[in-house]
Design a protein that fits this description.
It contains 6 helices and 10 strands, in the order αββααβαββββαβαββ. By secondary structure, the protein is of the alpha/beta class. The mean pLDDT is about 95. Bound molecules: guanosine-5'-monophosphate (5GP). The site of guanosine-5'-monophosphate has 19 residues, from strand 2, strand 7 and helix 5.
Amino acid sequence: MNFLEERILKDGVVKEGNVLKVDSFLNHQMDVQLFDQMGAEFAKRFAGKPINKILTIEASGIGIASVVALHFPGAPVVFAKKSQSINLDGDIYTAEVESFTHKNTNHVLVSKKYLGPDDHLLIIDDFLANGCALQGLIQIAIQAGATVEGIGIAVEKGFQAGGRMIRNLGYQLESLAIVESMDDKNGTVEFRPQ
Ligand code: 5GP
């Protein structure tokens, strides 16, 4: 079992509706030493890739991506902003993202100033469930003509469809913990062996 899986077993809480709460170390209070360990692990898994920028999505992705970026020297972090409405002034890339946790649809947008064809991206996010957030970020990368070198996720819920879908598209998707099953009645979490 790796460091993130151990931490999930220690501090994660399984909620109704297939939601894993990790507010005490990832989504509200943030354990930045843990994020640093995650960054070191992503640096190993994506070694040799010409990554020059990290792309994530607000809000929970920002903290993780910022610490992970320390392991990719020279790579700034760009985060997609969420907005209910878009001001289409032509200077932004946009995609639609359905939120798993909030059950609403947001537009996500990135300024054209900060993403372009020379960028080789590592996409980072906290959770992968149905893959909507990642699909939105990938769409934005495609609009920018950027190359997605890899995708790094903290927690993938392997029993939801996102992981398979993204891997089938041919992306190198690395999830540090893959939850195979969880049960809110007795609080158990089981991981896919990696
Ligand atoms: P997706 O777009 O893959 O369906 O969902 C990914 C997004 O939903 C993540 O960015 C994350 O914020 C949120 N999310 C999905 N499932 C969970 C969960 O079980 N726990 C938490 N804390 N967030 C989740």
